[in-house]
Amino acid sequence: MSYWEFLGEYGIRFVSGAIVTAEQTVPASALAIGIPVVFGLMRLSRSFVIRSAAIAYIEFFRGTSLLVQLYWIFFVLPLFGLTLEKFAAGFIAVGMNLGAYGAEVVRGAIRSVPHGQTEAAIALNLSPATRMRRIILPQALLIMLPPWGNLLIELLKGTALVSLISVADLMFAARQVNGSTFLSAQAFGTALIVYYVMARLVVTPAMRATERVMASRLGRT
Amino acid sequence: MPEPIAAQPKVRLDRVTKRYGDLVVLDQLSMDVAPNEMISIIGPSGSGKTTILRLLMTLEQVTDGIISIDGEPLTHMPKNGGLAPANRAHLRRMRTKIGMCFQHFNLFPHMTALQNCIEGPIQVLGMSKVEATARAMDLLAMVGLEEKAGEHPVRLSGGQKQRVAIARALAMRPEVLLLDEVTSALDPEVIGEVLQVIRGLNKKYDLTILMVTHQMGFAKEISDRVVFIYEGKVEEAGAPDQIFGDPTSERTRQFLSAVLEAG
Questions:
Q1: Taking each helix axis from N to C terminus, what angle separates A184-198 and A3-43, rounded to the nearest 10 degrees?
Q2: Is the ipTM reported for this complex over the cut 0.95?
């Protein structure tokens, strides 16, 4: 069987798998963007309790394996009365894990905005919240975009793990095709190519476009 | 004791000390500034000039002593018959009287010149965008940058940036304006345009101005009084003609001859 025949026969399963991967990636990305903003700011709080809570979250989700976290959320939480559907468990685990890395990106970006900006904002008597929202965060956003691009690609690839709790994503499709045909090179080769294409032709251009838009808002075009 | 120069000084520093660890930057410095006065603060680098302005802008906290504006403590507030360090609400209330321009401008790079000037009036003073824009355009016109209102700071020259920064500070209608080496980061050929804007500012906008500067000629020309700071203290203060023409302190004399020789 040529590779083209293989694709003709099983291509549709890779396509539907890729769609599920995309469906996992989008809400996971939303989490992985929302969580870091909240936890990155908490990490910079004056309050010891709030700061500690953020550090605990970041340390736990960065310091332990994504796969184990996924299993916890899907298999262990139901024992404590919190049952999640596998689809939801999948993107929540991936989003919370990458969100912990993102929180550090947010914190670093906020801290790298020159201190003179804060001083100028104080001299205009802006409140601390307004300083953060109107002056610091917009500038930090531009600084954090390139590392965000990396994280979102990591996230896309990380969603492959959800196949292990039987979410029918791209990796799940590849494993099924491999199981029924034993054409491992074709099955996993196709998965490799599709992941690469999604990362290179979707995530990266989207991030570049966002960076351009943000840069032009700073008048740097 | 500083000589009383008005019934009520606009700004009073009363035995203000600022220490960073073991380093004493201001050493029981006392100084009064009268309403509408234009004061130039000069002195060797590291003498504490800029720290005076930073304390007045509440960017730093005093180690000891009291700063007052219009007789009301800035760094402290009355509590149980005594004085306690100011809380945030007190600082925010007192800051409405004070504005500052920085050596490195510190314009907000993600905003146009106009947006820089309306941000404070809208967010802090609660002005409408229309009102704030009208006020900002007047000020941008005053500094000669009406046609640059839509430009981001990255498209402006150093002199233009500093003029926008002055307009931005004035848009808040401060009563006390602090100018921290506003020409030190500028190319020589654009210093004049910034000095031109500062000239007469205190009369036009009913301002009390404290200016830290290395422009001795300018300080001599426009100041009501010149204060020479040496090692965290007021070494000598007086009319520009006296300080530059006939300083009483040997240190002032040495400093001025060194500076004037250099340039």
A1: 40
A2: no
